[in-house]
Every structure is written in C-alpha cells, then in structure tokens.
Amino acid sequence: MAVLLFSAEQQQKFDSGLVEILSHYPADRKSAAMLPALRLLQSLKGWLPPAGLEQVAERLGTTREKAYEVATFYVMFFTRQPGKYVLDVCTNLSCSLRGAEKVLAALEQKLGLKAGSANDRFTLRETECLASCGTGPCLQVNEDHHESLTPAKLDALVATFT
Questions:
Q1: DSSP string, the chain
Q2: What is the share, in percent, of the chain residues with pLDDT greater than 90?
Q3: Structural domains present in the chain
C-alpha cells in the first residue's frame, strides 16, 4: 500500500516542479537534479520524509539510498521534522571571537534545549559559517539572518517566538 505523501495540490506542484527542474538536465543525467528536487520536496513538506525521498529517487532514476545519502550530507535538508523555528548559531572563528558561545548558551537556557536537539517549536543547531563574519555573532532563524547579536537583541528576538 502506497503512503499518501501529498495532497492533490501538493502532488501537482511536485510533479510540475520536477518537470521544470528536469528540463534543465540531460535525460541520461536525471540524477544530477537531486539537490533541486530535494529542495522542492522540502519546500512542500517542510522536511524530507522517507516516502518523499523514495519518490524523488524513483523520478530521478536512482536509489532511495542515494537520495538519503545526499539529504544527510547537507545541513540545509531535514530528514527529521524540524521545529517551527530552526535556529542556527554560527560558531565559526569570527563569530566565536565576538561572543557566539554566549549567544548559543543563552539560547539553550532560554529555550530549554541543547544545541543539536529539537521540539515541536524549535530546532537549535550549532553551525559553521553563515557568511556574516564582519557582523557576528550571527543567528539564522529559518532563512532570516540576525547579525551583531547582543543579549538585548537576543532577548527581543526570542520574545517574538512566544
């Protein structure tokens, strides 16, 4: 029995999106479209469920293991359902020198989570460079950057989540 992954509207978006994506690749190289296909799936579902990885693999003419391998290599993909807010704290050298560890510790305390864990509301992760070296410490919330963080800015930002 097939797992119902998409609503009818989502299935249509998935199908038409894959047709568009695949139009940019040679027919004998469909598997090269893995990254945009996974991005499409995640944009529709919020994460990459196993049944979705299977659909992507099937449509690209590859194995579900290959799809999973790619999905788990890149931090931008979620193979487990994330919280509503994904918080990535850059702890690379530039941000660390400007207080990233204090930002991360404050977030862990405020949210009651350790870096690398999640609940329904938050996913808190320590990450490498967010390309904000001159304005660190940097925090990315979902896909929005927050730079030059201070305790006061962090408190105001966290207050918007509650």
A1: -----S-HHHHHHHHHHHHHHHTTS-GGGGGGGHHHHHHHHHHHHSS--HHHHHHHHHHHTS-HHHHHHHHHH-TT--SSPPPSEEEEEE-SHHHHHTTHHHHHHHHHHHHT--TTEE-SSEEEEEES--S-GGG-S-EEETTEEE-S--HHHHHHHHHTT-
A2: 88
A3: 8-73 (1.10.10.1590), 85-159 (3.40.30.10)
